[in-house]
Every structure is written in C-alpha cells, then in structure tokens.
Automatic annotation (TrEMBL), chain A:
Protein name from the UniProt record: RNA polymerase sigma factor
One MF annotation (Gene Ontology) recorded for this entry: DNA binding
Pfam families: Sigma70_r2 (PF04542), Sigma70_r4_2 (PF08281)
UniProt keywords, alphabetically: DNA-binding, Sigma factor, Transcription, Transcription regulation
Species assigned in the record: Kribbella steppae
All copies of domain RNA polymerase sigma factor 70 region 4 type, residue ranges: 108-161
C-alpha cells in the first residue's frame, strides 16, 4: 500500500489481482449482472484516484467493496432509466453449485429466494455479512452504516428470514 | 446447522464467473497517468500533469463509462467532460442575500475569506462551515476548502481553458453544476454560465457572473 501511494502504479496491479474476485462477487451479488466486469474495472480506477483519502492502516478490502457497492448502485440506476423492457439482472441473480453438500440444493434455493424477497436494507446486510462472509466491521464500512445499525438490521433480517422460510432449520 | 451458517454455505456455493482476464492490464493502463489524490501541496504538481494530459489529448475519447479517466480535479471542483451540452439555458448565479460581516463569515467558515479589490465591499455575505459566498450585482464568488464534501462536479462539454495567470480554469460554455455527496451520489444543481475556478492556499475559488474572461482573470488576480 505504501508503494502504491508512493506513486508506484505497478504495485497497484498486485492489489487488483488480490481483490478482483471478491469485488466481482460483490458486484454480482448486488445486482450488476452482465455489467459486473465494468463495475469492477471502474471501481479499481476510482479507488486508485481516491487512495489519498484512504486511511493508512485501515483495511483495503471493505473500503474497495464500498466503492464497488456504490458503483453497482449507479449502474442499476442508469440502467432503470435506460430501458424497462430490457432483461435486467437482479440482485442475487446467481447460479448455485449443485456440488456443495453442506446444505441441500433445495434448501439453498429456498434461502436464496427468501433473501431476495427481503426489503432492500435487510437484503444488503444479509448479503454482506453472510453471503459474502464479511465481518461486522467490514459490513459497516461497505454499507456506510454505523456498526450498531448493522447489528440491529441483521438481527431483524434474520428474524424475517426465519418467519418466511417454510421449515425452520431446527426441524430439518 | 444455524441459519447464518446455512447462509454462508449458500454464498460460497453461488457461482460467479471469473474476472475478466484483461482487468489488471486495463486498470493499470487507465491509472498510469493519474496521480493518486494527495495533499493540496502535492496537488499543484498533479495539476500540471493533468493539464498536460489534457493538452496532449493523450486520453482517447472513450464511451461514457470511461470518462472517469478524464476527470480533472481543480481543488474541490471536479471537471468532467460530457458528450453534449445542457439543453436548458444557464441561469444567473443565485444572489447572495446573507448579511454577515466578514468577521462573522470567517468564524463560521473557519478561514478568512479573500476579497477581490476591484469589486469593493460585497453586497451579500453568506457562510457555512468550510464555505463563504460573496455577492455583488450579478456576480457570485464562492470560496471553499478544497477538501470539503460535497464537492462540485462541473460537466463541461466544449472547451476548458487553462488560465496561467492564476493557474486556474475558465469554463467558457454553459455547463451543468452538480453536487456530489460523500457517498458519491450526484445531484444536479443548475446550469451555470461562464465560470472561473482557481485554487490558492488550500481554498478553491469559483467566480461566476463575469462573462468576460479577461475581466474575470483580473478580478481573480486582485483577490487577496
């Protein structure tokens, strides 16, 4: 990081390689769809320009993901202006890997559907904290909310999910 | 398994295609000529570099999405070229109606506002933390700490002239004035007429309402 800020732009390439996949995952989970690669590229360029405002010692990942989240929102907004008829990618438009055995495919489909139908703030907090597996602090940075808000919304989101799911996990 | 662990498993099993192979190369190409935003002192150097890029036309004209590479930061003002000009006519700068004294403005803003000697005492003075607006008949001079958020985004579509006398920029055509908040959201304020923007000692100056460039530059030089 110090090298990048010292003006060594090539060193930035290492950061790009390191964080590209999680950036793309975030963009796709938040609804960028086919624009995900553009969002990621745009975000890395914006992040580079804004490195001056990056606090030394802070974590790069959540800071970058926040830019990705904002960028995705911009894309979604300009897209909805452009055309309503186009086939649009929605948040959490993802394919599930049938080979994951920890939780059955059927159950995962059910969960995905339940998360997708949450109100936006709840969906966002569940997406960041669990689907992307960020910690509470990182989630707060990405969404730009105070940590307490993350905690309470997460709690309420889980409650909603439990209510909306056909069978509770304990009964399975 | 608890619900949160199930959700984590769900997230892990969501298939996301690998990132575009050319990503790193594309990013590095685009940032190669862009200096990292640094402190204001350093920004003077980046100023010149960006200006040279602009003059050399080194940046190819890409589609809308890539305009970020052409942004030009002038203190707290960012200039961003767009394909076409605003469709509505520029409106006159809003009159400064506040009646603070210069001392009160200094206390509110946190810095001492500079005055253009040629215009005499301002008819109106307004201030918010980090910003002072001074008004004369039809003329508006704003001064703000370059790092204040929100910053202005000017969308210009024709030419942007460097003004070596004050190391600033002259927006000679009507352009959209947009405010950007800390979350990066843009809000269109209005269409502005010719404006001179320059930075001195960490403060960004926006002079609007003087249609003649030579006169505007003269005012800027006489501001202290």
């Amino acid at each position: 990081m110090a090298r990048v800020r010292g003006g060594e732009s090539a060193a930035y390439g290492e950061l790009v390689v390191l964080h590209a996949q999680v950036a793309k995952r975030t963009a796709v989970f938040l609804g960028a769809g086919a624009d995900a690669d553009d969002v990621v590229q745009e975000s890395f360029v914006k992040a580079y320009r804004a490195l001056g405002s990056f606090r030394t010692g802070a974590a790069f990942r959540p800071w970058l993901l926040r830019i990705v989240a904002n960028e995705t929102r911009n894309v979604l907004r300009s897209r909805s202006r452009r055309s309503h008829r186009e086939e649009l990618a929605a948040p959490l438009d993802v394919v599930l890997d049938p080979a994951e055995h920890a939780v059955s495919l059927e159950r995962r489909r059910e969960l995905l559907e339940a998360v997708r139908s949450l109100p936006e703030t709840f969906r966002l907090v569940v997406t960041c904290r669990y689907l992307l597996d960020l910690d509470e602090q990182e989630t707060a940075v990405v969404l730009g909310w105070p940590r307490g808000t993350v905690k309470s919304r997460l709690h309420r989101a889980l409650g909603r999910l439990r209510d909306s799911l056909p069978d509770k996990e304990v009964q399975r | 398994m608890s619900l949160d662990d199930e959700l984590r498993a769900l997230g892990r099993s969501a298939v996301v295609p690998p990132v575009d192979e050319g990503l790193t190369a594309a990013v590095l190409t685009r940032v190669a000529d862009l200096p990292v935003r640094r402190s204001l002192r350093d920004r003077w150097r980046t100023f010149l570099a960006l200006f040279l890029v602009l003059v050399a036309g080194a940046v190819a004209t890409p589609p809308v999405r890539a305009t970020v590479a052409e942004w030009l930061n002038i203190g707290g003002v960012r200039a961003q070229p767009v394909g076409s000009g605003p469709t509505s006519a520029p409106t006159a700068p809003p009159a400064v109606t506040g009646q603070l004294s210069l001392e009160e403005a200094e206390r509110v803003a946190g810095f001492k506002p500079a005055l253009p000697s040629e215009l005499g005492a301002p008819k109106g003075v307004e201030a918010t933390p980090g910003l002072v607006a001074l008004g004369w008949d039809g003329v508006r001079l704003e001064q703000f700490r370059a790092e204040v958020s929100p910053v202005y985004v000017k969308k210009y579509y024709q030419t942007l002239q460097h003004v070596p006398e004050v190391d600033g920029y002259w927006f000679d055509t009507p352009h959209e004035l947009v405010l950007e908040d800390s979350a990066g959201l843009e809000r269109r304020v209005r269409v502005a007429g010719p404006t001179l923007v320059w930075v001195r000692a960490g403060v960004t100056f926006r002079l609007e309402g003087v249609a003649d460039k030579a006169r505007a530059v003269q005012f800027a030089q006489g501001t202290s």
